[in-house]
Amino acid sequence: PVYEVVIPAEESMSNGSTFPIYLSENNIPEGYVLGVYIDSARSYGEDGLLHLTGTKGQADALVIVNRYDRDGSYMAVTQQSMPKVAVFEPGNIRPAQYGTLFFSVIDEEQLPADTYTGRIYFNFVLEIG
Fold first, then answer.
1. How far apart (Å, rounded) are the C-alpha atoms in residues 129 and 119?
2. At residue 4, does pLDDT exceed 80?
3. Rounded to whole angstroms, what are the CA distances from 14 to 27, 46, 52, 104, 114?
4. Which residues are registered as beta bridge partners of 86?
5. Separation of alpha carbons 47 and 78, rounded Å
């Protein structure tokens, strides 16, 4: 099957920024769904949080990654192992479930002004629907 997931290679964010996940092409076969998962082992620190590193050698900025559901509810997924963050059904470029992340910086007001960077890694799994 052919599908193209749109996840920006680089994204500027601030506390509360949202991060949508969608498809630009969807040829997922009938009877299957595409699950998008955060690879928590590669993305989060040992404390289960996303770490963003500054350029001035100070402590990392710690971030809680949250997942929105289509009904507007959300939950933190940083403490989960391999959390599912989007589900796509055949023929639809918008997710059938989840699909938007937002980020909450812990103690943002205590962080020195700087540019902080980090990475989130994703796994894509074609699953029987």
1. 29
2. no
3. 34, 23, 12, 8, 12
4. 36, 98
5. 9
